[in-house]
Design goal:
six-stranded mixed β-sheet; globular; nine-stranded mixed β-sheet; 17 helices; alpha+beta; 3 domains
Length: 496
């Protein structure tokens, strides 16, 4: 999620005793089983002592593919596992639902951890292609079907003035998706989460646990910003810690419900697992003759909201073509985009391109260089007969060809960025290279970014989703994920 303004972070640190939640931890499965067993058929069983009396009272049996398929329970505490539950035989009438959204967890790391033996209650993870700009509010508004948000972040320009970012943030003004979430930490306490991310994250899991076991709702949704805090502060090590905790938490929930829960685990987007050097777009543009202002009044004025340090930015200007061409000359800027007629113009330091849309089809026209690195893919689509006479290919074909590209699904995502994702859409959007970030300078003094997000790049874009209820399409756009879950009999868009 977008980080609170560092200036206000410091102020709220002074009042943590009043504002911060009392830290509680959820019940977790023991980190290791007390015994394991493998049979000739390839089934592997891990036995646990969940009540710490020295005897096994719960077991997870993995099938030949390594997924937990059968659970065993000691129902009368006599040391014998007398109840067997086969997960795939439970239908929706026998189970509740739990959806856990982890902020900023990258797909590739989840795949790696599952390969190492964790997260085996779930089917294989699928990659989620997040919208651009890759920001929590925009991503989850698309997932829950409540777009548009007001801006890229809580600080945006409404055509007259800059919003009061911290007020918008704490009042959840840019987060219409939160009405679909049952358990989350209030934004006023996010300062605490970023100062003590591990304790804060565990408290969030406790909050989700309390919401699930403290109600009879058929479906419960919880969101964790602490996942982002752990990754931001500790990089890959932080993400590994949070995934181990949530795995043990899900095991515990499964054990306590005797398998009668269908759990979905997902993230809103990825994280680049790279140290980020701050850059000053506003100062660099000032050296080119632009004026960094709070309102557009004269030619040359630009408004560039600065909030949490991320790898994207929005620029408001009356000269988008000129600004887009100039901003890519700044160190750390990878790409810039602006609306040009009915299409989207793309600039990089080495080239230009234009993206046109016709109905459900797109055309990529490189007018100098190949800023999105799509010409080889375009040639392949041509050879496969997937281009029409005007060089358009269907959205379906473009998605299949580019979902795992260095810039995943760029043609759809860039059109969407300028069409309905935000109310106050910037005139120019900027994607930074990995290793750079833009935002308020004090946050970089307060927290050194070990991982960040926001850009069009795959490292930032690919979140993950995995279910105990069944496999999902892979990859999948964020906007299509709720329908995919519905096909498994799940209901992530329940009304409150």
């Amino acid at each position: 999620m977008t980080h609170p303004s560092p200036r206000h972070l410091m102020l709220f640190l002074l009042t943590l005793c009043c504002a911060a939640p009392g830290c509680m931890s959820p019940r977790l499965m023991p980190a290791t089983p007390i015994a394991t067993n493998s049979d000739p058929a390839g089934n592997h069983t891990a036995f646990y002592d969940t009540n710490r009396d020295g005897r096994r009272d719960y077991a997870e049996q993995r099938d030949a593919d390594g997924r937990v398929a059968v659970l065993h329970f000691d129902t009368n505490r006599d040391g014998e596992l007398d109840l067997q539950v086969t997960l795939d035989q439970l239908d929706s009438s026998q189970s509740r639902e739990l959806l856990i959204i982890l902020d900023s967890v990258p797909y590739q790391l989840v795949r790696a951890l599952r390969g190492e033996g964790r997260l085996r209650l779930f089917h294989e993870p699928s990659a989620i292609v997040a919208p651009f700009p890759v920001m929590t509010d925009l991503c989850l508004a698309e997932f829950f079907g409540v777009s548009p948000c007001l801006g890229i972040e809580s600080r945006y320009y409404d055509g007259r003035r800059l919003s009061r970012g911290v007020v918008t943030y704490f009042l959840e003004g840019n987060a219409p998706w939160l009405k679909h979430v049952d358990a989350y930490i209030l934004p006023i306490n996010h300062a605490y989460i970023y100062t003590a991310p591990e304790a804060g994250y565990l408290h969030e899991l406790y909050t989700i646990e309390r919401a699930f076991f403290g109600s009879e709702q058929p479906a419960v949704c919880g969101y964790s910003v602490g996942a982002s805090a752990l990754g931001t502060r500790l990089g890959e090590a932080g993400h590994r810690t949070l995934l181990e905790y949530v795995d043990r938490f899900c095991q515990s929930v499964m054990q306590r419900t005797r398998g009668r829960v269908r759990i979905t685990l997902m993230s809103d987007h990825g994280h680049n697992l790279t140290d980020s050097k701050p850059i000053s777009l506003h100062k660099s543009l000032a050296t080119m003759g632009y004026r960094d202002t709070k309102a557009l009044r004269k030619p040359g004025d630009v408004v560039i909201p600065r909030y949490g340090p991320v790898t994207c930015a929005g620029i408001y200007t009356r000269e988008p073509a000129k600004v887009a061409a100039d901003v890519v000359k700044i160190e750390g800027v990878d790409l810039s985009f602006y609306r040009s007629g009915d299409g989207i113009a793309v600039h990089s330091a080495a080239g230009r391109a234009f993206i046109a849309r016709s109905g459900d089809s797109y055309r990529y026209l490189a007018t100098g260089g190949d800023p999105l690195q799509l010409l080889p893919i375009l040639e392949r689509l041509r050879e496969e007969g997937k281009l029409d006479a005007a060089e358009y290919a269907s959205d379906t074909d473009w998605f299949a060809a580019t979902a795992d590209h260095v810039y995943p699904d760029p043609l759809y995502r860039l059109h969407r960025a300028f069409d309905g994702l935000m109310v106050h859409t910037p005139d120019v959007m900027v994607s930074l290279e990995d290793g750079y970030c833009y935002g308020t300078s004090m946050f970089n003094w307060f927290v050194r970014l070990k991982s960040a997000h926001g850009s069009l790049l795959r490292s930032s874009t690919h979140g993950f989703v995995m279910c105990t209820a069944g496999p999902l399409a892979d990859p999948i756009r964020m906007k299509d994920l709720a329908a995919e879950l519905h096909n498994l009999g799940l209901n992530p868009r329940k009304a409150h």
